[in-house]
Amino acid sequence: MTDGNAIKEALGSMDAGRVFYDEKMSGHTSLKVGGSADALIVIENEHQLVAVVRKLREKNIKFFTVGNLTNIIVRDGGYRGAVLLMTGMKDIQCRPLAGDNVLMAAMAGASLAKVVSQSVAEELTGVEFCAGIPGSVGGAVWMNAGAYGKEMKDVIQEVDILDTSSMKRVMSRDEIAFSYRHTDFPDRTIILGARFKLVKGERAKIKERINDIMKSRQEKHPLEYPSAGSVFKNLPGMPAGKIIEDMGLKGTVIGGAEISPRHANFIINRGGATAADILGLIELIQFRARKEKGVALETEVVIIGENECSEK
Fold first, then answer.
1. How confident is the model at residue 311 (pLDDT cuts 50, 70, 90)?
2. Which of these, 193, 189, 1, lies nearest to 91 by C-alpha position?
């Protein structure tokens, strides 16, 4: 079974970034919950990521790559293996294309907030919808994140990946099938970065659109508490939050976790919540939705790790 010693032996003296063993994930997830990972590896650049992934795969050590842990729930038993945090891979560069088009290249660990701010600085329109989404480029591309009528598929030109053989390659937009909160990248694919096709615009109008979106988010979302954003995917014509609200579940509490009274598709940590508290609310919502509405609600958040009773 994987443990910190096996990972330490596998990494040896290689340049693997900053490595923390037996690291509590509650200090890193946006929900502020989660047990300890055998290792948390903070990747500083693409070269490190490729080298570490190849070594871990060679040694058959389980790992999970993340951008910034904003839509991840780590169970209370922690993660047996290595969590690769790509926050150091955050460079963004722009280059002109024909006409008013501009290509923005962003690494997987770059935050969407930085993408939006860079678009304002460069006077580029197209990614305003990303304003207020707390994720990273890699995660947003992987799940085809979207809001306010637009999705990542609308701006993606190319995606750089590390394939199942740990080789780097480029996938064009036409090679990727997009659907609601999903892309069809092959299993075990790792996103290294993406290029977005944007258009020159007027800074004042771009900022106005971003400000409108941020104002809307602040009015509707419980941003004052730790959360992982929207918990469930919407159904066609049926917003998950409306389904949950119609079942009278707003304000329902388990331990330190609560279904937000402001937006029913948010589960918040009011203080001292455990992953089990949050997962308990998720299971309650799913059970009630099946029983009362005849629908299956699928989580938008990603759940990893072991239950608290699991042994290391």
1. very low
2. 193
For residue 16, pLDDT over 70 is answered with: yes
d(CA 158, CA 176): 9
Judge if 259 and 156 occupy the same domain.
no
pLDDT digits (tens, 9 = 90+) for 209-238: 999 999 999 999 999 999 999 999 999 999
Whole-prediction pTM value?
0.92
Q: Total domain count for the chain?
A: 3
Verify whether residue 298 is a known catalytic residue.
no
Catalytic residue at 26? no
Three-state secondary-structure class, residue 292: helix
Question: Considering 111, 136, 230, 260, which one is annotated as catalytic?
Answer: 230
Which residue in the list 181, 203, 270, 288 is annotated as catalytic?
181
Mean pLDDT, residues 115-138 taken together: 96
Which CATH number does the domain housing residue 137 bear? 3.30.465.10
Domain of residue 265, CATH code = 3.90.78.10
Beta bridge partners of 101: 199
Active site residue 260: no
